[in-house]
Specification:
Elements (H helix, E strand, L loop, with lengths): L4 E4 H6 L5 H4 L5 H15 L5 H4 L2 E5 L4 H4 L2 H16 L6 H11 L10 H22 L6 H17 L2
Helix pairs in contact: 3-8, 3-9
Amino acid sequence: MAKSFQLRLDVDEWFSNINKGKTQQIKTDFDLYYFCLMMGLATKSKNNPSERCQCRDFIDYFVSDYKNQRNLIIGLLFRAELENMGISLDEKDATKKQLLKLIDPSSQTNLTDEGIDKMNAYASGGFDYLREKFGSKPYHLEDFLQSYVKILREAIDGR
């Protein structure tokens, strides 16, 4: 059986005021996962989610809203992992070795089990980073999105 994307249970609680039940603007759990994942990839923050707290498997494929961006998301994961390991794209053998560890074009997600584990680790690390930067859980989606974009830009710019 294929590995699944995982959400930490504390993610549900932290996003509970702006989550799908109240506003219908956050449609899927993958939206929450994506917020956390992008922050983790941008900040190179990752940790093993199952060592941090309880997790739940929520899906083993990219939902339709993200399917067209799947390759971009996987590319960001690959780039973050190369940078994390200090591997340059010019190092063809090392790059290919990492590519084979993370990517499996025959799987539903195009990721190996290790690739999904890494993605889950970045989502968990990104959630920790978000909680640290926000201080308290968000109460309004619009405020969250404005702050999120600002924090993400600062992370990308290295501030």
